[in-house]
Design a protein that fits this description.
Strand 2 and strand 3 form a beta hairpin. The termini are far apart. With 171 residues, this protein is of the alpha+beta class. The protein has one domain: Transferase(Phosphotransferase) domain 1 (Transferase(Phosphotransferase), domain 1, Orthogonal Bundle), CATH 1.10.510. A 6-stranded antiparallel β-sheet has the order 1-2-3-4-6-5, covered by helices on one side. Strands 7-9-10 form a 3-stranded antiparallel β-sheet. Strands 8-11 form a two-stranded antiparallel ribbon.
Length: 171
């Protein structure tokens, strides 16, 4: 049976689950022949992260990332009542898939370091876990909207890089 979801009075056909994170479930969806990501916020417990209003955080974080100049998918719709967002789908391989297949993500280190510098200048850290980054047409995209106040502990060089490389000589 085909599943559809309505967000802001528009119907989307769910194609498949893309991922389940600490904030919600992300689905590849389609409307009028255009693929998008539909993210449904959840309220499952997370022992290592404290949340406030998740849907408002999505809106706020999107604006902060956009203002910082970080390459992110466009936010297309936000339904605060249903706690659901629709954003541009960035098709491509995740850095997680690249590293997991034994290939090097070294070619994308300049891009992620540029994003990290922009985030730091804006007083932010982004979530550097490799599932949050997609390569499309040679460009690296940060496809999550999560960001937090900057802390050296959670910077790319102190935390994120360990997930991007398999050995120190690759960095």
């Amino acid at each position: 049976m085909e599943e559809t979801r309505t967000v802001c009075d528009a119907s989307y056909r769910i194609i498949r689950l893309l991922g389940h994170g600490k904030g919600g479930y992300s689905y590849l969806a389609e409307r009028n022949g255009c693929e998008v990501v539909l993210k449904q916020i959840h309220h499952e417990p997370c022992s290592y992260y404290a949340f406030g209003n998740k849907i408002e955080a999505e809106r706020h974080d999107y604006e902060r990332l956009k203002n910082a100049g970080i390459r992110i998918p466009e936010l297309l719709a936000i339904d605060t009542e249903q706690e659901c967002i629709v954003k541009e789908y960035i098709e491509g391989e995740t850095v997680f898939e690249i590293v997991g297949s034994g290939r090097s993500a070294k070619a994308y280190l300049p891009d992620v370091r540029d994003m990290a510098a922009k985030a730091r200048t804006a007083g932010l850290n982004i979530d550097y876990y490799p599932t949050n980054f997609v390569v499309r047409d040679g460009l690296l995209w940060y496809v999550d909207y999560e960001c937090n106040a900057y802390s050296d502990e959670w910077s790319f060089e102190n935390w994120g890089i360990r997930y991007w490389v398999k050995a120190p000589e690759q960095s």
